[in-house]
Amino acid sequence: MCFSCAMLIPAFVALIYGDGGGKAFMQAFALSLTVGTLLWWPCHHHKQELRSRDGFLIVVAFWFVLGGLATLPLLLLDTLHLTVASAVFEAFSGLTTTGATVMTGLDSLPKALLFYRQLLQWLGGMGIIVLAIAIIPLLGIGGMQLYRAEMSGPMKEQKIRPRIAETAKMLWIIYFSLTISCTLAYWLAGMDPFDALTHSFSTVSIGGFSTHDASIGHFNSPLINGITILFLLISACNFGLHFRAFSTTGHENFIKIYLRDPEFRFFISTQMILVAICILVMWNHSYFSFSWQDFEQVLFHATSISTTTGYTTLDFTVWPSFVPVLLILASFMGGCAGSVGGGLRVARVLLLYLQGKRELKRVVHPNLVYPIKLGKTVLDERVIGSIWAFFSAYLLVF
Known about the structure:
Elements: H1 8-17, H2 22-40, H3 52-76, H4 84-95, H5 111-135, H6 145-149, H7 164-189, H8 193-204, H9 222-235, H10 239-246, H11 251-260, H12 262-284, H13 292-306, H14 322-331, H15 346-364, E1 373-374, E2 377-378, H16 381-397
Antiparallel strand pairs: 1-2
Helix pairs in contact: 1-2, 1-5, 2-3, 3-4, 3-5, 4-5, 5-7, 5-8, 7-8, 7-9, 7-10, 9-13, 10-11, 12-13, 12-14, 13-14, 15-16
């Protein structure tokens, strides 16, 4: 039911620009509202705590139901002519912030449709965070248990807020604030209001959709590229960490909260190492001249691809083949736990590294008792086991 309201916004955009797409979005709104009401009405009186099996059902239903409803406007638009398979692909790609697309000629498409694609990624990005922090801990797959292990004091066994509704509210506030900030930054850097808003949707959500075929490269602006890099890095960090940082008082505490977090340090370190390796390889192949423009392009694409965003400003496939392959491999790690980034998540990769390090020490010292710590917190072996299970399942997909 709530998702159906999202159809009204692009309908309003269609009215402003007069591109004729309003009818399709109003029809999709009516159908989505009907389906939502039919699903909500039989169980709206039942109130109880979520169990693990409820969490699995919510995760599956979230993607399949919303993905199906998100397909409706793409099928109903007269000017698009997408097949059912293409429409489903585009809708799921948007909601899951994957960023792959089957659509071309974006510059000439109706503004309402372009806005809707970007909006899907923005809504999907926030959905991922809410699931990661509020729902997925119920499933016990080694995700936000790591985040909760780093909490101290009375909140150690809680989420950001003790109730899921309050958790979601605080996350929405952070997410919305980042979106507004990104929109203003893009606008001040030279984007028109429409592009600034729509690109902030896909930047903060780490989705990668654009309203132009040339992606961010359409604007040909180093300043816009720099703003994109900044907000991609912010969005790839743990939103629970953002909450803790902005809830403190004092500049020193704000900085220390980030620097004390082992996942954040590992994430920033790997980004710096990734950029350095790319620069060295490209310099060795005479593709890098140590100019600011070359450095900015390497930094932009390393950040965009490793965070699983997919923005581009040029054809990086002409670079030495090692660089694109390295960037794609880096995207398997993706963003931090509790972020909108994809991939395995930085926390899991860090824990896999620490586990491997421990096993190597055990080869030399078989009787060594060597607990795995995240910061100062000793992690339960069940958390490590669940991460290995997730990692194995992740590899099986490929």
